[in-house]
Amino acid sequence: MTLQAKIQSLVQLGAAFSRILNETASTDSLTSAEKNVQQWLSRAVHHNGWYTEEMLRFCLQGWSENFTVEKLEHWLTKYAITENQSPKRIGLILAGNVPLVGFHDILCVWLSGNHALIKRSSSDQQLTTAVVQLLESITPDFANAYTFVEEKLTDFDAVIATGSDNSARYFEYYFRNKPNIIRKNRNGIAVLSGEETAEDLAGLATDIFTYFGLGCRNVSKIYLPQKYDMAHFYQGIYHRSDVLQLEKYCNNYDYNKAVFMMSNRQIYDNGFLILVEDESFSSPIAAVFYEFYTDLSELQSQLNAKADQIQCLVSNLPLSGAIPFGTTQKPELWDYADGIDTIEFLLKID
Residue 109 contacts by C-beta under 8 Å, 6 or more apart in sequence? Predict the structure, then answer.
């Protein structure tokens, strides 16, 4: 199957997502595979309490917007991808912290002409399965490009594993003799100037609360100028108090607030998000860490030294790699996790 044919298949997948998300359209116009995905939009929360229908719709909308000819060709034309006569077997150990978090890896393996051995996370198993089957219904040849693995991974040529810092130590040892990409904990951070508009802060709220802060691209740490007015920040994000509608979020908010208070930590609190001064990047759910800075160039040096802990950075300030507020959960297809080019890695496997 040619690369151009695969691109057209993904364009059709994007169109299928749009039909699934169209609440005014009749379900009679959907294929059985599309109906299966649509059903999981409302049912997934019963298998994973964080997977609300709103978040799943946000996820599919993002994929739909990425699956255009222009974006796909912009992403893929720089690679020397040919029809692979000797496909490699690539083990994929997927995370499940946010919806379809491993789908990009699955696509990279297929687009590079290899075979994916997919070990799904129990947290995201049903949705990943439904979307993979939807792509297969559009492109029957895709059935030959993947295998779902229930037991231990065996007979593989390379592996891409995503997990925590703790699981990464195990992965690095177990897969040490194979080409691999091992992903660890990373976080999104924000650097504020104090001059942010209401629109900027609304975007920052999206960066913090989408997927309830569970993703590696969620902002979990903010840097503030000295004497920053916390009331300005809280006013800008107050419209996201709707996160309290999810019981799991409320439970985490109550628990983490109690832990901070029992530890005599000074906190700011607006009833649904806790701000805590801390040098770490990875804050618990319903909390964001903050630090003050005085010199921007000095802060840039600090961030450079900790680059392996940062997934993305949002700011209006002239900082290396900064992206606009509100975009952390809308990565482009070429925004590779941890900055490692997955397709380039796959094409170089001997």
Answer: 90, 92, 115, 116, 145, 146, 346
- CATH superfamily of this structure's domain 187-323: Aldehyde Dehydrogenase; Chain A, domain 2 (3.40.309.10)
**DSSP string of 283-323, one letter each residue:** PPTTEEEEEEES-HHHHHHHHHHTGGGEEEEE-SSS-TTEE
Phi, psi of 312 (to 5 degrees): -160, 160
- Tokens (6 digits) for 194: 């104090």
pLDDT digits (tens, 9 = 90+) for 47-103: 999 999 999 999 999 999 999 999 999 999 999 998 877 899 999 999 999 999 999
Residues paired with 310 in a beta bridge: 187
Dist. CA 305–CA 299, nearest whole Å: 10
Interatomic CA distance for residues 285 and 316, integer angstroms: 25
Any residues with CB less than 8 A from the CB of 52 and at least 6 apart, and which? 45, 246
Residue 203, C-beta contacts closer than 8 angstroms, at least 6 positions apart = 314, 324, 325, 326, 327
Which of these CATH numbers, 2.40.30.30, 3.40.50.300, 3.40.605.10, 2.30.40.10, describes 3-184? 3.40.605.10
